[in-house]
């Protein structure tokens, strides 16, 4: 009886770990899609990555609440020289229908001199609270980032 209980608990733990990894993969995919939309200027796609009541905390800005206000924020930014955008999660912790994700962000900008080769730069660190919606999609409930010191080296 005791041996059967250990086997059952082991299978439950393995299944839970596989489920968590599957959810982490979905979050990473959603994040990559956000970056793609941002680089391509698809601000509607960017805004739709947030929960309807999502919160955005951008450096030097007031707290922005709601998908429409978040859309307006992203639309207000000047058209940039952005060639690439990506995030690299250091940690993603799943807790039921929420996930805590933090790490670093990288961008590649068009160089001032067209003869120069574009270089990826690590410009920000971030924290995202993800929330699973009723359809099972991960949405950003809270998105916070700040810039890193220009002298920072990793």
Describe the structure.
By secondary structure, this protein is of the alpha+beta class. The protein has three helices and six strands, in the order ααββαββββ. The chain has a six-stranded mixed β-sheet. A hairpin with a 2-residue loop joins strand 3 and strand 4 (98-109). The longest helix is centred in the first third of the chain and has 39 residues, at 2-40. The protein starts with a helix and ends in a 7-residue tail after the last strand. The model is unreliable at 7-14 (pLDDT under 50).
Could you outline the blueprint of secondary structure elements for this entry?
Elements: H1 2-40, H2 43-48, E1 50-57, E2 64-65, H3 67-76, E3 82-95, E4 98-109, E5 120-132, E6 138-147
Parallel strand pairs: 1-6
Antiparallel strand pairs: 1-2, 3-4, 4-5, 5-6
Strand arrangement across the biggest beta sheet: 2-1-6-5-4-3
End-to-end CA span:
53 Å
Average pLDDT reading: 86
Count the beta strands: 6
Structural class by helix and strand composition: alpha+beta
Q: Biggest sheet: strands, sense, closure?
A: 6 strands, mixed
What is the share of helical residues? 25-40%
Low-pLDDT regions: 7-14
Q: What's the gyration radius in Å?
A: 19 Å
The shape is: globular
Number of helices: 3
Order of helices and strands: HHEEHEEEE
Strand coverage percent: 35-45%
Identify the notable features of this structure and list them briefly.
154 residues; alpha+beta; 6-stranded mixed beta sheet; 3 helices; 36% helix
Task: Give a brief outline of the structure.
The chain has 154 residues and is α+β, with helices and mostly antiparallel strands.
């Amino acid at each position: 009886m005791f041996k059967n209980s250990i086997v059952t608990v082991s299978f439950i733990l393995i299944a839970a770990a596989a489920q968590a990894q599957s959810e982490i993969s979905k979050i990473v995919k959603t994040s990559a899609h956000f970056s793609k939309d941002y680089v391509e200027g698809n601000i509607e796609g960017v805004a739709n990555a947030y929960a309807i009541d999502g919160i955005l905390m951008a450096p030097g800005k007031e707290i922005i609440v709601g998908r429409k206000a978040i859309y307006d924020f992203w639309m207000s930014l000047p058209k940039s020289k952005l060639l690439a955008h990506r995030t690299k999660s250091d940690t993603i912790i799943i807790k039921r229908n929420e996930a805590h994700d933090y790490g670093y962000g990288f961008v590649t900008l068009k160089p001032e001199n067209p003869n120069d080769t574009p270089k990826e730069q690590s410009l920000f660190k971030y924290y995202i609270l993800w929330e699973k919606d009723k359809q099972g999609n991960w949405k950003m409930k809270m998105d916070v980032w700040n810039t890193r010191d220009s002298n920072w080296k990793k």
